[in-house]
Amino acid sequence: MAQITRTKGPSFSPDWHYQEPVAWRDTDLDEKTLKEWFRYILLGRQIDNRFQVLNRQGRAPFIISCAGHEATQIGVGWPLRPKYDWLAPYYRDVVLCMRMGMTPLDLMLAVLAKAADPASGGKQTPGHFSDSRLNITSGGSPVATQMVRGAGVAYALKMDGTDKVLLTCYGEGAGAEGDAHEAFNFASIYKLPEVFVCENNGFAISTPFRKEYAIDYVAQRAAGYGFPGVTVDGRDPVTCYFVSKEAVARARAGEGPTLVECLVDRLGAHSSEDDQRRYRTQDEIDVLTQNDCLERFKKRLLEEEILTPKQVAEYEESVKEEITKATKEGMGSADPAPEDALKNVYASEAPKAIDPSPGIETEEMNMVAALRSALTEEMERDARVMVLGEDVGKKGGVFLVTDGLRAKYGEDRVIDTPLAESSIAGVALGLAIAGKRPVAEMQFTDFAHMAFNSITNEIAKYRYRSDGDWSVPLVVRAPMGGHAHGALYHSQSIEARFASPGLKIVIPSTPYEAKGLLLAAIRDPDPVLFFEHKRLYRMFKEAVPKGEYLIPLQVARTAREGTDISVFCYGLMVHYAMEAARNLEADGVSVEIVDLRTVYPLDKEAIIASARKTGKCLVLYEDNFSVSVGSEVAALIADEAWRWLDAPVKRLGGLDVPSMPYAVPMEEFFMPTPEKITKVLRDLAAY
Predict the structure, then answer these.
(1) DSSP letter string over 615-649?
(2) Dihedral through CA 653, CA 656, CA 657, CA 661, nearest 10?
(3) What is the pLDDT of residue 9?
C-alpha cells in the first residue's frame, strides 16, 4: 500500500490564558467610575433582595437570582456603548441590563408581570430581558439559543460596516448545548464583532462543573474555534473590565470574537423553585458568603480610601430608597387584561395583493426558475434581502434555486453556512431582528427537525414573547414531499409538526403561484416557512411574469370551480386532484378544488364557503393521515359547516407509518395518487 504523505501545515498554538488581577490604577479607570460601579452592584443586590421578599409574599411567583454575578456584569459591560452596541443576555444579567439602560422599575414591572413590562408585557417569567430601544435582544428559557441568534445580529452589524459590538452571555451549563458550538463556529468563520461571556458559577442548577466539562476552564474551548479565550476571577470587576475592554476593542477592529470566562459564585439557589441545600454542603454555602463579590469590592474601596464608611452607608440608603420607590410604582402599575393574551401573535398588517402590470413580459418557467426569479428581483429591489444555507452560494443549492445569486450579489448577501440547521435558523432570526430580510434554505424539510427549537420556540414566539417589541421578517425555504424516490429523510411532509402560532406556512402548487407567494413571504413582517414540493420543481412550465406581483398569504384560491364535491389540498396534491376531477366529469360529477396555499393559519372563510356550497368534502394531503393539516381542515368543516353537509367529511392522506419507504411499490402504497383520489371521490359522490 502506498504511503500517504502530507505537506506540513501552519502551526497551531491555542491562545488561552488566565488573567491575573489588574490594579485599577494600571487601567484608564478613575475613582468616580469605581464609585459608579459600586452603586450598580448595590442596585443589583438590593433588587435581588426585594425580589426575594416579593416572592415570599406571593406577589412574585417566580424569581431568579443575580447575587454573586454583579461584579462580573458591571466589569464586562462597561466597555459597551449603551443604545449603540447590542446585548444578548442570559437570565441572571440584571446589572448588565441596567448598564445598557434598563431601570429598576423596568425590572420590577417584569418580576410583577405588569402590562407595562418592557421585556414581555407580562408574557414571560422574570429574567427574560428584552428592549429593542436598548438593543437588548429577547431571551428565552432554552439555554444557548441566544448564542446562535446573536451570531446573526453580529453578522448584520459587520455587514452594515459599523463598529458596533454584540456581547453574548451564557452560563457554563449552556456550553453543553449544540447551539453553543454552532454559534462559536459561525462567529469564528466570519470573524464577527462578538464577545462571548461565560458566567461560570460552577453549577447547571445542581450539576457540577466536572460533570459538564472535561477541561479545566470553559474558555479553553475557544482555541478549537480559532479565537482567543481568557479566564478571569469574576468577583473582581476591574480585571473583568480589563479583559472585556480588550475583547471589545478586538471586535470593533474587525478581529473577530473572544470568549471570556468569568469565575463567579451563585450565592443563592438556582431560582425560587430550587433548594441548593440538596446538593451543596453547609460548609460550601458558608464559603460562598465569604467570597461575596459585593463585600470584596466594598472592602477594596474602603481600604484604598476611595469611599469612607459614611459614604458607603449613604450609597446603601440611597439605593434602598430607589428600589423602594420602584417597588411601589411597580405594584401600582396595571396588570395585563385577560384578552392581552391574544395580542401580538402576528403583525397587524401583511402585504396586500399586487397584480402583474398590464402587458408585462412573461417567460415560460418551471418552479425552480420562478423561485429564482423571485429571489433575484427581490434582492435587486431591497438590499436587506439575503440568502443563507448549505451550498446556496457557488453551487446554487442542491436544486439550483439560488444559482447565480452569489455571483450577482456577493458572498456577504449569499452565505454558504456550515452544515448546522439550528444555526441557519438562529442566525436568520438574528439577521431579521437586526434589520435584514433573510431567506434561509434547509436542504430538505426532513433536516429542518434539527432546527425545530430555533423555529418553533424562538422564531415563532419572538414577536409574542416580546409583546410586539420585535418583528421577525424572515423566510425559511425547504423542498418537501414524496413521489421523488427520496425515502425516509428526503420525502417528509413536516408542515403539521411545525404549525405553531406566530409562524405562517406556505406551500405553492405552480410556478406562477410560487413566485407571487415567495415575494409576499419575503415582505411579510412575520416569519414564514415556505415549503416547495420537489416533484413540482421541474414537472411543467407556465407563463410567469418577469416583474413584480404579490399573492397575499392566508388566502386560498379556487383552482377549479365545481358544485358537487369540494377537495381541499395543496402542493402536488392540487395536480393529482385535478386529474381525478377530470375522471369524474364522465360520471357527471362536478368537483371543486380549493388550493389552500397557506396551510397555517388557514383561510377558514374560503374553506367554509366551499363546504357550504357543495355539501360534500374531501381533504387531501400526503402527510401522515393522523395529526395533520388535513385533520385540522376536516375538524374546521365539522365544527362550522356541518349543517350544510350531505355526507361525512372524508380524508385521504399518507400512511400512519414513521416515514416514506424507499422501494417504489411501498412508496406508491404510501402516496395518495390520482387513482386513489378518483375512487374516494366516486364513493363520496354516491353517498
Answers:
(1) S-EEEEEEEESSSSHHHHHHHHHHHHSGGG-SSPP
(2) -20
(3) 66
How is residue 327 written as a grid cell? Answer: 417597588
Residue partners of 328: CB distance under 8 A and separation at least 6: none
Kindly list the distances between the CA atom of residue 621 and the CA atoms of 98, 465, 592, 673, 678, in Å, as whole numbers in the listed order: 52, 32, 16, 10, 14
Q: What is the distance between the alpha carbons of residues 169 and 146, in angstroms, rounded to a whole number?
A: 8
490 tagged catalytic: yes
- Label each residue of 276-300 as H, E or C: HHHCCCHHHHHHHHHCCHHHHHHHH
Q: Cell digits for 644?
A: 350544510
Per-residue model confidence as pLDDT tens digits over 141-167: 999 999 999 999 999 999 999 999 999
Task: Label the pairing between strands 598-600 and 504-506.
Answer: antiparallel
* pLDDT (average), residues 554-562: 98
| Cell numbers that stand for 3 in this block | 504511503
**Could you say which of 128, 181, 270, 490 is catalytic?**
490
207, amino acid identity: T
Q: How many helices (H) and strands (E) does the chain have?
A: 22, 22
Q: Please tell me the distance from the alpha carbon of residue 125 to that of residue 123, in angstroms, as a whole number.
A: 7
Taking only the tens place, the pLDDT of each residue in 34-91 is 999 999 999 999 999 999 999 999 999 999 999 999 999 999 999 999 999 999 999 9
In the predicted model, is pLDDT for residue 264 greater than 80? yes
Residues sharing a CB contact under 8 Å with residue 345, sequence separation 6 or more, in sequence order: 463, 464, 501, 502
| Per-residue model confidence as pLDDT tens digits over 311-355 | 999 999 999 999 999 999 999 999 999 999 999 999 999 999 999
Instruction: Point out which residues pair with 136 in neighbouring strands.
Output: 87, 131
- For residues 615 and 590, the answer to whether their CB atoms sit within 8 Å is no
Q: How confident is the model at residue 137 (pLDDT cuts 50, 70, 90)?
A: very high
Q: Where are the alpha helices (DSSP H) in 168-236?
A: 178-189
* Dist CA 354 CA 180 (whole Å): 42
What cell was used for 557?
A: 384560491
CA 204 – CA 220 distance, rounded (Å): 19
**Strands 203-204, 207-208: pairing kind:** antiparallel
For 359-415, what is each residue's pLDDT tens digit? Answer: 999 999 999 999 999 999 999 999 999 999 999 999 999 999 999 999 999 999 999
**Are the CB atoms for 285 and 277 separated by under 8 Å?**
yes
User: What pLDDT does residue 209 have?
Assistant: 93
Backbone angles phi, psi at 99, to 5 degrees: -60, -35
For residue 686, count CB atoms less than 10 angstroms from its CB and return exposed for 0-12, middle for 13-18, buried for 19 or more. Answer: exposed
d(CA 299, CA 377): 64
What per-residue confidence (pLDDT) applies to 1?
41
> pLDDT at residue 6 above 80?
no
Residues forming a β-bridge with 170: 198
User: In 309-365, where does DSSP find H-type helix?
Assistant: 309-332
pLDDT tops 70 at residue 592: yes
**3-state SS, one letter per residue, for 403-428:** CCHHHHHCCCCEEECCCCHHHHHHHH
Question: Are 168 and 194 a contacting pair, CB within 8 Å?
Answer: yes
Which residues, 6 or more positions from 100, have their beta carbon under 8 angstroms from its beta carbon?
77, 80, 82, 83, 85, 87, 134, 135, 136
Please, are residues 634 and 607 in contact by the beta-carbon 8 Å criterion?
no
Give the model's pLDDT for residue 224: 94
Give CA–CA dist 228/232, Å, rounded. 13
Residue 7 has pLDDT above 70, yes or no: no
